[in-house]
Amino acid sequence: MMDSVTGLISGAAGGGAQANEGVEEGGGVRRRVPPIELKLVPLEEGSEVTLNSDVMILQRQMDRRKAVVYLTLSGLLIFTTAFLLGYVAFRGMCRLCGNDGELIPLSDAAGAQHAPEGGVMYMAELREMLKKYLTEERIESTLRRVSRASHPPGSSEGNAVAREILQNLQNLRMDHTWTDSHYATLQFPSRTQPNTLWLVNSEGEELEEIPLDSEGYCAYSATGTATGGVVYVNYGRREDFEQLRALGIALNGSIAVARVGGAVSFAEKVWHAQEAGHVGVLIYPDPADVPQDPRRLGLHSNAVISEHVHLGSGDPFTPGFPSFNHTQFPSTQSSGLPIIPAQPISANVASKLLSQLSGSSCPRGWQGRLPYVQCVLGPGFTGPGERRVKMAVYNTMKPVLLNNIFASIEGKIEPDHYIIIGAQRDSWGPGAVKSGVGTALLMELARTFSNMVENGFSPRRSLLFVSWDGGEFGNVGATEWLEGYLTMLHLKAVAYFSLDQAILGDDILSVYSSPLLADLIEGAIKQVEHPKHTGQSILSLVQRQGGWRNIVKPLYLNSGAYSFTAFGGVPAMQLHFTEDARSYPFVNTQLDSVGRLQELLQGRLGSVGRAVAELVGLMVLKLSHDQILPLDVTCYSNTVQQLSSKLNQHTAQLQWVFSARGDYSRAAKNLHEAIKNSDIQDERLARLYNTRIMRVEYYFLSQYVSVVETPFRHVFNGRGDHTLSALADHVSLLRSAPHLFNEARFRRQLALFTWTLQGAANALSGDVWNIDNPL
């Protein structure tokens, strides 16, 4: 460039000046400034320098013309830009007209998505795009591939399924795809010494062996032998054991026989039996709860249902810590591990034992439907001689490498905030419902959202799709990942959707959810057609059952979503389509196959799967699209108010609970009003509000209990003495059993709950100078 510049003063004048080429800044735009060109005229000796005025005038006129042209073009450019910006802004603020002239609601206009061609996409268009790309055929074909054989963690079949899922996610061209590995300790049946059950005499001599299913077992059972009389404990609920004590039944040293169901997990049954003094537990499926006619979609009478008995989640030998291979842990184990053996038995085995019991008759409502069994509690046996039962459990522990598989679509505005969709991948049996349904829905949603992005969808927040390993053993893979990122998830994770066991029928929808997410379901179910009733929305049928709020229930311990809320402080949801409580009895058995599920649904597996995928997809779409997260922060103030009114009936010492509840209610209301009166188009302001909303569940994790000893620290959804339910149960003793009320324990419970609630109120208020704490 310098060779072409003529503005150089050369040696004839005895000196020189160099033309300058630089960069000029203006209006935030950097532009290159051309070099100044100086033409030097040789002077005669003794003459004076004179400037040609005509040339100067002509040059000024040309400069003025250039300025006029420049100003005119600049004005047109500014006017056009302002007009376009104003038009787009006006369209975003007002109601919008679609191609057919139909008005689109304001809520659909917020946060318009820009298509690659320069157009805009609104929520109504995104909903239609979601419905367009979801397919029934892929759901069913994926389900059949995943459920073709048993695939427990660490097995060759399990690794093959994992590789196939990873490859399929990579083929979708996600922004990021990776795996997360953990070494966890799992328990399996012994290959050399099977579990056994015997009838023995008073001397302990074995009289008769009762055959057991070799594949049925309770993971994380205590090992060894236990001998004692037999007591029938109904469902093994806390209230069942209280009723047995009231009847004067001797429980210490006996073996409990409990039936499946009663809204309590195997782990809870074993825990309650252990607290009552039993030395072992046998769990069976009663025909009153689980259909047992194999010709009509029922279990056969020799089938057993297997389930883990760890009262917790994750690897029980690294409680509170992630099981990464490079991390060292203290020598400890979960307090939720049972210290008594547990074993699943069939209805036939239960019938053989219970038909020989002697003692008091069962309370009303305890009678099952076992053949030839009169409901008697035990613990003795009829007939000559004193007989007892001896059970032996020889399960073995084994370290297994678990692999969680992740894929993500990165958000365009808030990429560090993400909505997580996950499903269990492993299964002891074929696992059509246990793992296949969730995996098929996960892959279909990943494919659908990937196609939507390629066709113009630009999510505001990131989407994270996860296939979890070790789910059969208490959501081990998911919990280990939560433990690894526990300190930052409340800053990153907007919500979690579990797809596990989403299809158990095709008639009744049940939602197990954090209260913050409950309102999302209303918007989704009114837009999705019911899979069994063509032409009717799910909402229209739900309203006949008493309204949509009746289908929303609290998260339960064995739910794939429970740990996210109760342990991680992340709003979470899991939903099921069922026929009724007894619709599909094959979960956790070797009979959980695609053929049986398809038979139950009468060939509608694909349509039911598509309905579930659409429900979850619409909720995920809204969370990833709206500028302000659609989470109801006021829900917990209502929960506290309802329980506080019950507490108030027992004691007047709870004014601090009421005070904290009032502070939280005011903070939630003030945040709601502030958002309503703010310019949510302001990205900085919207992010500040969203950060406070995202942390609400985390605020309710008690900071005063150990995450190692009490992992489920949530004061509403957790388990332990710090929870509101534990406080309410203890206070109720003032009326039912005053001698059992412990004032020191009560004061501790009151402090734990109250200060957690007060801390949540203070955090929700925002900055410390916004906290309303009047004298």
TrEMBL record:
SUPFAM superfamilies: PA domain (SSF52025), Transferrin receptor-like dimerisation domain (SSF47672), Zn-dependent exopeptidases (SSF53187). Residues 227-292 form the PA domain. This is Transferrin receptor protein 1. It is a single-pass type II membrane protein. Coiled coil: none annotated. Residues 654-764 form the Transferrin receptor-like dimerisation domain. Its main location: membrane. The keyword Transmembrane applies. Keywords: Cell membrane, Disulfide bond, Endocytosis, Glycoprotein, Lipoprotein, Membrane, Palmitate, Phosphoprotein, Receptor, Signal-anchor, Transmembrane, Transmembrane helix. It is found in: Cell membrane; Melanosome. The keyword Glycoprotein applies. GO terms for molecular function: transferrin receptor activity. One of its GO terms (cellular component) is external side of plasma membrane. InterPro entries: PA_dom_sf (IPR046450), PA_domain (IPR003137), Peptidase_M28 (IPR007484), Peptidase_M28B (IPR039373), TFR-like_dimer_dom (IPR007365), TFR-like_dimer_dom_sf (IPR036757), TfR1/2_PA (IPR037324). The chain crosses the membrane at residues 67-90. It comes from Cyprinus carpio carpio. It comes from the Eukaryota. Residues 404-584 form the Peptidase M28 domain.
